[in-house]
Amino acid sequence: MDDVVVEKVLRAVEVVPRGHVVSYGDVAALVGIGPRQVGSIMKLYGSNVTWWRVTNSYGDLPVTLMDEARERWADEGILLKPNGRGCRITEYRADPRELGPAYAAAVADLEVASDG
Which residues constitute the domain of residue 15? Predict the structure, then answer.
């Protein structure tokens, strides 16, 4: 896996504001890759970033992550869906257009390095 792409995904996750979530597709659109690639990167490398802020398009996470995610979401004021299997993404989704400038700033050094 391309180290620069991995770093771009992880930095995209880090710009998601507290109390908000995004989908794998939202991150993919920022980075310019596919949502499945984002999921793979998060599975392999995402444990040291705010992974609970990245869900599928329904606001769900893998079952194995839900216990910890529930605690982190509660701490950030993010409510669960009635079925308890994820968060209410429609209420807490960060606007991907608003993340663009923060993401661009977060990866500016990577863009310079890849040009050089």
Answer: 3-115
Domain at 99, CATH number: 1.10.10.10
Amino acid at 112: V
Whole-angstrom Cα Rg for the chain:
14
Which residues fall within 8 angstroms of residue 111, CB to CB, at 6 or more apart?
Answer: none
How large a percentage of the chain has pLDDT more than 90?
Answer: 90
Per the structure, how many domains does the chain have? 1
Put simply, whether the predicted model's pTM sits higher than 0.85 gets the answer yes
CA atoms within 13 A on the CB side of 97: 0
pLDDT surpassing 70 at residue 115: no
How much is the pLDDT for 26? Answer: 97
Asked if 16 and 22 count as a contact pair (C-beta separation under 8 A), the reply is yes
d(CA 6, CA 41): 6
